[in-house]
Amino acid sequence: xxxxxxxxxxxxxxxxxxxxxxxxxxxxxxxxxxxxxxxxxxxxxxxxxxxxxxxxxxxxxxxxxxxxxxxxxxxxxxxxxxxxxx
Length: 86
Prior knowledge:
By secondary structure, this protein is mostly helical. The chain is 37% helix and 0% strand. It has helices spanning 16-22, 40-50, 69-82. The longest helix has 14 residues, at 69-82. It starts with 15 loop residues before the first helix and ends with a helix.
């Protein structure tokens, strides 16, 4: 911090609402996760506020791994037509 300044070593807490406001259907965002990091509850909470729920088909939670490619592609195609979060 002495040479570069605090803005290069200190980070504001993650703000899901702000990320959502800055995104659009043309500028989506995605998460690259690390062990011990799970944004699911934060995403689901914002989804509830915005009307994106698993129960109405507007939210799909996929843990990518072996065999999930088709599930993800199908969800992307569906959301591209009708809107939604994956």
